[in-house]
TrEMBL record:
Residues 36-177 form the Peptidase M16 N-terminal domain. One of its GO terms (biological process) is proteolysis. Residues 190-367 form the Peptidase M16 C-terminal domain. One of its GO terms (molecular function) is metallopeptidase activity. Gene3D superfamilies: Metalloenzyme, LuxS/M16 peptidase-like. This is Predicted Zn-dependent peptidase. InterPro entries: Metalloenz_LuxS/M16, Pept_M16_N, Peptidase_M16, Peptidase_M16_C. Belongs to the peptidase M16 family.
């Protein structure tokens, strides 16, 4: 009886905590089309300013890839009112920190400051949008930076190319088929006008969402937003090509040799629904069930019990048009990647043919409850969630209701989605192997 009482108290506290975690926000549009989201939280004297642009690697010309990621770097070079090399100094001298990142569908810039430097954050992001200098010196400098990043993260990093290789095999026509970093040859051959045209097309207020989250006065902040961003001219409407991929109906086998590794890996990748679809949430639950932590099914079976795997991983890659789901592992000792594949397939077959246990189902629910709370535990995390939910899921309030989707997913639904998407004939099988050295 005592154990049940403790469980009941824990659940009540969790529910109360989640209720208290509700994120209150206001959203509206400026006349130039920029969407604005404000989340006021005066509990701590910090504030995040962030801008997400609806441009990622999928928006690039197939003959000019890498531009979206390149601009993530280039737009720290300076503006008409910020000299080269001064951006980071301005941020740090005001007690702040910031960064940017690019993915398949969006590019995101953000700064977190003490709340008395909010205006500095708004000014910086308006400068990035209104007055960037797209000059040859900055372009040449950032080409070298991107080249070094590719060498560090892809070319010379163990297993660094797996993402690009998988995308190339998962997609035939869709622009997800090339990696986010893109082609260094394309960047090297691009002209200054190419970069200016990319900026003029996608870095416009009607292709962006501005988020301010944290300690601020709402009416004062609205005026600053209007003053700094309102005068920026609206851009031309962006025409996006909607590319529909034919389903994968026969297993696609691929091999990649990596000179940086000694242990082979097997990766199994499935094309899954876009991240706003309900089934994408179910795939996330399946991924967590199979391989999220040392208590997950695949880790316990392959690493702890049978000791045939050195490492197991299971990752959903969320994206706007299509997502993908990747599961794989590294063998240990005399075991092979075929042994790993057989065991993974056996566990997937179990999910497809029988309901997961009530205990495992509750464990999944607990994990997603915890993830939900953690994602909204800082103003910077809240800013990112608000921007992404608005831009890529078309529902800003998912920051409050997304957990309800996970709560409503049933064990039966998990089984049906696994049957529908995790089929052997609908996947890419990538054997990621050490580079074979020629004998003397």
């Amino acid at each position: 009886m005592k154990r049940y009482l403790v469980s009941a108290i824990f659940m009540l506290l969790t529910i109360n905590h989640l209720v208290s975690q509700k994120v209150v926000f206001e959203e509206y549009d400026l006349d130039n089309g920029m969407h604005v989201i404000l989340h006021q939280d005066n509990s701590a004297p910090v504030v995040t300013t962030a801008v997400m642009y609806h441009v990622g690697s999928k928006d690039e010309n197939p003959q000019k890839t890498g531009f979206a990621h390149f601009f993530e770097h280039l737009l720290f070079e300076g503006t008409k009112n910020i000299e080269r090399g001064e951006w980071d100094k301005i941020v740090s001298s005001n007690g702040g920190n910031g960064n940017a990142n690019t993915f398949l569908d969006r590019t995101y810039y953000y700064e977190t400051f003490p709340s008395n430097s909010l205006e500095t954050g708004l000014w910086l992001e308006s400068e990035r949008l209104l007055h960037p200098i797209i000059g040859q010196i900055g372009v040449d400098t950032q080409k070298e930076v991107v080249q070094e990043e590719r060498r560090l993260r892809v070319d010379n990093s163990p297993y660094g190319a797996f993402f690009e290789v998988l995308l190339k095999n998962l997609y035939t026509d869709h622009p997800y088929k090339w990696g986010v970093i893109g082609s260094l040859d394309h960047l090297a051959s691009a002209t200054l006008d190419d970069f200016k045209n990319f900026r003029n097309t996608y870095y416009v207020p009607n292709n962006a969402v501005l988020v301010v989250a944290g300690d601020f006065e709402k009416e004062k902040t609205k005026k600053m937003v209007s003053d700094y961003f309102g005068p920026i001219p609206r851009g031309a409407e962006i025409k996006r090509n909607v590319v529909v991929e034919d389903p994968i109906t026969t297993t696609r086998k691929a091999t990649h040799y990596d000179p940086n590794i000694q242990i082979p890996a097997i990766l199994l990748a499935y094309r899954t629904p876009g991240q706003a679809e309900r089934e994408a949430y179910v795939i996330n639950m399946i991924s967590t069930y199979l391989s999220d932590g040392e208590s997950s099914k695949l880790y316990k079976k392959l690493v702890d019990e049978k000791k045939i795997a050195l490492q197991i991983f299971s990752v959903p890659i969320d994206a706007e048009d299509y997502s993908s789901y990747v599961v794989g592992g590294l063998p240990v000792g005399e075991n092979s990647i075929q042994d790993i594949k057989n065991e993974i397939d056996a566990e997937i077959l179990k999910i497809q043919s029988e309901l997961i246990s009530e205990r495992d189902y509750q464990k999944l629910q607990n994990k997603f409850e915890n993830n939900f709370v953690n994602a909204n535990s800082s103003v910077s995390g809240i800013a990112n969630s608000l921007a992404e939910n608005y831009m890529l899921r078309d529902n800003t309030n998912l920051i409050n209701t997304e957990i309800d989707i996970y709560r409503s997913i049933t064990r039966e639904e998990i089984m049906e989605v696994a049957k529908k998407y995790l089929k052997v004939n609908q996947r890419v099988e990538l054997e990621y192997l050490p580079e074979q050295k020629e004998a003397n």
